[in-house]
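REVIEWER CHECKLIST
Item 1: Sequence provided? yes
Item 2: Single chain? yes
Item 3: Sequence as submitted:
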Amino acid sequence: MLLGFIIATIVITLSPGPSIILLLVVSLRQGAMAGIKYSAGVISADTILISLSLLGLGALMQSSVLLFNLVKWAGIAYLIYLGIKQLRASSKVSVEATKVSGSPYLQGLGTTMLNPKAIGFFVAFFPQFIDPNQAFWPQLMLLGPLFLSMVFVMFSIIALLASRTKLLFESSKGQITLKYGAAFGLIGSGFAAAFAQRA
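Item 4: Structure as written out by the authors:
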């Protein structure tokens, strides 16, 4: 289950979205260090949102395993929905149309904190990898920091790459590969969680 969590985290982190697009913009225009500061802002916001989300999950698990499983199945459906949405989206990721100003850290913090879907995503994502038959908090203490660490490392690597090679992210072939890789990865994560639930 831990390996599945790591793979799903990689796929979801690399999926095109507001945070990663702005990360590319900041890194391309202000350099790798600005991109890393932006990444630190994203992680700060994710820490707050994950804490709020998982505290709710902990209370839910203590009150009803049935309700927890209902949330888990809703999460499976949400992952598949995100994958289908990614398939239908344009593969063109434009970094030129986005303006950058102000502190990179505050941009990362604000972009993530003001995303109304963030808490819903974390509530949907984490239950796929939590065993309701085992103690909740030890699992949380492993998965939460692991998720945050992986996101920060991957965002920092993207910042370093983006600041050095613009063509890597402007290539139409690269954007198409990213689009379909992320889409099928999300759908696959949803189906894998569903089959694991039935096993």
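Item 5: Key structural point noted by reviewer: The mean pLDDT is 77.
Item 6: Recommendation: ____
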